[in-house]
C-alpha cells in the first residue's frame, strides 16, 4: 500500500508538471500572437498614419512602437480595450500630430501634462477608466473640440476651465457621480454641448418625501 501511494504521488506530480508546461506553452503562444498583432498594426500605421493597438492586452505602449513609427506623422492613435494604467510623457512627444486619441476602456486615472503639447488634437476618449476628475491638461490643448469621459468616477468638474477651453464643443460626462453643485455649474454653460446622466436626488434633497 505504501509503494502504491508513492507511485500515485509521483504520477500526480508528473501530471502537475505536464499541466504547468502546457499552461506555459499556451501563455507563450498568446504572447506570441499579441506581438505579431502589434507588429502588423504598426506596419499598417506606417501606410495609413493611423495606429490601432486596441485589444492587444497592452500594459503600456512598447518602446519598439515609438522607434518603428519615428518617421510616421500619426494622426490617430487607438489604445482602447487594454490594461494600460499610465500614459508616459513621450507619447505626446513622439506622436505630436495626433488629431484623435482613444484611451477608453483602460485603467487610467491621470494623463501627463505633456498632453497639452498635442496642438492638433481634436478628439480624446477617456471613457471607461478610473478618472476622479477631468485632466486639466486637456483644456490647454488649442484645437480640442470633443472630450468623451463617460463611465468614470468623476464627481467635480472645473466649470471655468470647461467654459474657457478655446475650441471645445462636446463634453460627454454620462454615468459619472457628479455632485449637485457641479451639475448646476455645468448647466450654466450654453456654448458647449455637455451630456450628463441626471443625478438621482438623495432623500434629504427630495422635498416631496
Layout of strands and helices, then pairs:
Layout: H1 2-48, E1 50-52, H2 63-68, E2 76-78, H3 90-94, E3 100-102, E4 123-125, E5 146-148, H4 159-164, E6 170-172, H5 180-187, E7 193-195
Parallel strand pairs: 1-2, 2-3, 3-4, 4-5, 5-6, 6-7
Spatially, the strands of the biggest sheet line up as 1-2-3-4-5-6-7
Oligomeric status of the shown chains? single chain
Could you state the order of secondary-structure elements as H and E? Answer: HEHEHEEEHEHE
Global structural class: alpha/beta
Poorly predicted ranges (pLDDT <50, ≥5 residues)? 1-10, 24-31
Radius of gyration: 24 Å
Quote the average pLDDT. 86
The overall strand count is: 7
Number of helices: 5
Distance between the termini: 75 Å
Taken as a percent bin, the fraction of beta residues is: 5-15%
Describe the structure.
- This protein has 209 residues and is α/β, with parallel strands linked by helices.
- It has helices at 2-48, 63-68, 90-94, 159-164, 180-187, and strands at residues 50-52, 76-78, 100-102, 123-125, 146-148, 170-172, 193-195.
- The chain has a seven-stranded parallel beta sheet.
- β6 (170-172), α5 (180-187) and β7 form a beta-alpha-beta unit.
- Residues 1-10 and 24-31 have low confidence and may be disordered.
Q: What is this entry, summarized?
A:
With 209 residues, the chain is of the alpha/beta class.
Which key phrases capture this entry?
single chain; 209 residues; alpha/beta; seven-stranded parallel beta sheet; 5 helices; 34% helix; flat; disordered N terminus
